[in-house]
Amino acid sequence: MSTQRHGKSGHMVLKLDMSKAYDRVEWIYLESIMLKMGFQSSWVNLIMGCVCSISFSILVNGSPHGYFTPSRGLRQGDPLSPYLFLLCAEGLHGLLSQAESRGQIQGISLCRNGPRLTHLFFADDCLLFCKENKTECDAFLQILNQYEFASRQQLNRSKTTLFFSKCVAQSTQDELIRILGVPAMRRYEKYLGLPSFVGRSKKASFAQIKDQVWNKLQGWKHRFLSQVGKEILIKSIIQAMPAYSMSCFKLLVDLCNDLEELIRKFWWGYGEEQKKVHWIISPRNYFSKDATVSCLINQDQHEWKTQLIKHLFLPHEASSILGMSLSSHVCMDTIIWPHTTNEKYLVRSAYRFLLERASRDRPSHSNMEEESKLWKNIWSLKVIPCIKSFLWKACLEALPTKANFFYRHLVPSPICDECQREAEDILHVIWYCKATNEVWRESSFWHVLQNSPPRSLAGLISEVMNCKDEVDIQSFAATTWLLWNRRNKGTVMGPPLAALSKRIICPSSPAIIEALAALEVVKLAKTLGLTEVEFEGDASVIISTLGDSSPNLSPYAIFSAEAQQNESIISLGSFLKPTTNSSWLSRSGLYAFGFYQQSNGYAVGVFLAGIPGKTVVWTANRDNPPVLANVTLNFTSDGILLMQPAQSKKTYIANPADRATTASMLDSGNFVMYNSDKKIIWQSFDYPTNTILEGQRLAVGKELFSSVSESDQSTGIFRLSMQTDGNLVQYPVGTSNTAAYSYWSSGTYGQGNNVSLCLDDDAHLYLLNSTGKILNNLTEGGNQTKDVVYLMRIDADGIFRLYSHKLDKNGNWSVIWFSSNNKCDPKGLCGLNGFCTTDDQDANCLCLPRFERVNNGSWTSGCERNFTAESCKNKGGRMIYSMEPLPNTVWEDNSFSILSSTKEDCETSCLEDCNCEAAIYSDGTCRKQRFPLRFGRQIKSNSNVAFIKRIIRDCLQGTIWNGQKLVAVKRLEKVLAEGEREFQTEMKVIGRTHHKNLVRLLGYCHDRENRLLVYEYMSNGSLADILFTPEKQPCWGERIEIARNIAKGILYLHEECESQIIHCDIKPHNILMDEYRCPKISDFGLAKLLDPEQTKTFTGIRGTKGYVAPEWHRNQPITVKADVYSFGIVLLELICCRKSVDWNLCEEESILEEWAYHCFEVRELDKLVSGMEVDKRQLERMVKVGLWCILDEPSLRPSMKKVLLMLEGTVDIPIPPSPTSFLSSI
């Protein structure tokens, strides 16, 4: 009917809707119909007995009153009711059939000469068909009125609708609608939940299915559902919603895709402003429709666009594309058929291709069987559903690992954060990572799978499933799930430690049972040495009480209180690890003792754990280098607290004279150890570092030392001393306790011999003598005492301050009091040869003229000359120095000569004195001094003038030496072409450079075949002569200085020259040493100059074997990172004073870079320096820098600027991966 556009007459359909159809069925009418239809009277009586057995009563104030029996109606929901209603509808069927036989209605024919259809019944729904004329319309009205009168049914005219065929005129439609008094059927109206008719737009006809799914998902979106919960809702509800429609219609592919997209979004997570990663997705097309092969080619250079191809294609696809050779001619893009030899399309080739693809895509029987077996085993495991779901996603690599993030270009590296060695895919996280190895070593699977290491997690699970012990399989599944969850929380989980069960006799209530269970668990955790424990249980009131210190009068409070008291008691045998149970908390949880992060490792100390950010207040062995994650802190059975690395010497934290039996982290911030008599035999309050807490005293003879910085708790350069004379004084570190070196004091000199500095809980900071008398109130006190913490600390800038922090969510540190408001007061803040000035109350450090900072990241390291010191007169008697005044500056008086003179005479006298390097003039007195100068400070009101001797650089340029100076002459004797190229290169490079760590060119000769270069003479030969000659080897401090100076020279070539220069041959033989053993880079014959816009170049291999970067051998572009690699080898040689390859040593030690990484990995760096006494922190820093420099992958190597910052200690150095790590091999 919807498609009928032509014909003599049209048709219409009347869709009937009966109002309260079941409720209006008259019992007398139903009984008469059944008897009329020929049902046996006894059967009719049985049916009517069932129908008429109903009765009703009315609830009045909640109580039933009266009973009455209705005379009509069928029960809704009764399975018999639809059939009985159909019997009632037989009356309407009889009337319609009678009218059809009389010719009053004709209905419609589905086809020519076919049977005619006048009505369709389905339960209480009815469709009536007739022609579009007033006669048949009137016949329908008469029949309906007669049926309503007999059955007491009533037509609902607001829901009854008319539908007309397309050929019915609009005027006719309007008249018939008026006669019947019912509306016309709207487009896409539903009948029994399905479209009444489906037109051309099938998508619009079934749009309600998508809307229903979307509305249902929207209702679930904001609920906290796990993926397993989402899976249950999807399978039980969402997938069932379109099932009814699909049983009648074939849905569009686009609609099915839309439904799948909605389900995927709900499954993986989504929101208005967020989109989570879909780890299992269908392939995407990254190209536009008009994309061509030519867009992947750099037409100017006739080469592939490597980075674009690697970004767009999978690795194996990119490799195949990049392996294709390109024509030297520009060719037009052409569509080809790759399945014939001449690349022309043939029908038979397409048929063959489709057959082969169908055969190839069809999985083999064995593979299909194995995969089916794997999924069956996973989904049939007797574990919680979330573990099954995890295993399924893990087998499909559909989890957020770093390897997946890297493939999607979301992170710069796929390397695992825990081991820093391999890419972090799911198999690595679960099985191969060092952080999880220990979990599996004790399992029965470990030794079996070592013979055949798994290549994928699916393979690993398949092997485990072959195990006959079902409990082992369940344990494996649960452990993998826990490992993944702990990895996401940044901690490493081990196997189950213990289980506990206990019978409780006659408990009074379930709450008492839960409280007793919590107490037993706390005791067990204490026995196992666990302090950071997550308690889970089904009695939330008990769990919350464990963390609540407020008074509780409930029946179970006594057990909860006992459990709380057990939290801070540490028994013998307890232990801590940096990444698992890392600290012991105080009872309130405010303070903790244990591991905290420092640099790229861990340190042990006391810190505030109850506020955001771990504020460290005490550190054990603060000058030791940070330890790695494989260390354990043990409270041994001997009562000693020590730290034991996996493969290194143990370090004592506390070793009291008396044997300790227990320890405790107190709420005061004091970590204490008790003997068997419960007396304190050791406490952290007795060994303060840089901080005093409430209730703590700085006793007479004790000192606080500042830290290097807020992030580095090592000993800094300032100290606060509680002197025996009763005076509290601040000094620089390394000075005597005399007034000349102090920069702040309490002014209590001579007021007692047993004075201590005290801090009360109301922020009262004061000096107290042995009689209890307060000598000096540094602060008045009287501050808030509840929900606030106070501490006094000598900061890294040399000023000690009193801080407060409120214990609420918005709390932060505030300064209550400070020792000085002038930040330049601390002496030595700017290091040697530096002086402090104030700029808007901030301290600013400056260097002496012609000096530069030793370490750009730390002013306390001071300044050094940026020139090489020479005799103050040359051979000709001409002065090469001048004096530069520095007014209003005050320095330490360390003079070797004191004169009475004028300002001018003082300047002249120092200039003429070769031993004088600076002169301090003040009030007619001239004090001659030598470098270094220290404790410099600029005071505008002071009249002092410092005269600094500096070199006149211009006098050195172009000096004619007349044979009076030793020089080095280099003669090039290679074949003509190569010799000429090397000569020209060296001239270009050295002619453009001038730096104290580059050799200086004095002249040259270019006469036919004679090519000579004249350099300044280096009296100590090359670095190789010093390093590899035992009696000449430099001390440790000298090695560090040499490394830094070489780095400065290379940095100058890479970043500070007009043209970037790649040296290409950095090695000890090309680094010359002057008379002061200052290194200078030489031999630029192989150097490569880059244009200003150029960052890489292709060139033939250059350099010396052993120092050449790997990219030279791989025909890759050469960048400045090639010099970084060479420097890394030189740095390792400098550390060890040996050659990079020495076959005279044992095989393990013969290749230096491999041996160095091995020693670093097992924490045996002492072997690299043959047991020599060196600063361990500096040694570790140097080795880490060297290992980063020699990585195979150039992009992972740091720049020389970063290398210099690392050497100077300005930036933290991450744990380096293996030089031949995974990332280096891809």
Automatic annotation (TrEMBL):
All residue ranges annotated as the Bulb-type lectin domain in the record: 569-686, 689-815
Biological process terms in GO annotation: recognition of pollen
Keyword terms, alphabetized: Disulfide bond, EGF-like domain, Glycoprotein, Membrane, Signal, Transmembrane, Transmembrane helix
Domain Reverse transcriptase: 1-184
Signal sequence interval, chain numbering: none
Transmembrane stretches, start-end: 43-62
One Pfam family in the UniProt entry: Pkinase
GO molecular function per UniProt: ATP binding; protein kinase activity
Apple domain segment(s): 872-952
PANTHER family given in the database record: G-TYPE LECTIN S-RECEPTOR-LIKE SERINE/THREONINE-PROTEIN KINASE SD2-5 (PTHR47976), RECEPTOR-LIKE SERINE_THREONINE-PROTEIN KINASE (PTHR47976:SF7)
Matching SMART domains: B_lectin, S_TKc
Domain Protein kinase residues, every copy: 933-1223
Lineage, top ranks: Eukaryota, Viridiplantae, Streptophyta, Embryophyta, Tracheophyta
Descriptive protein name: Non-specific serine/threonine protein kinase
CDD domains per UniProt: B_lectin, PAN_AP_plant, RT_nLTR_like
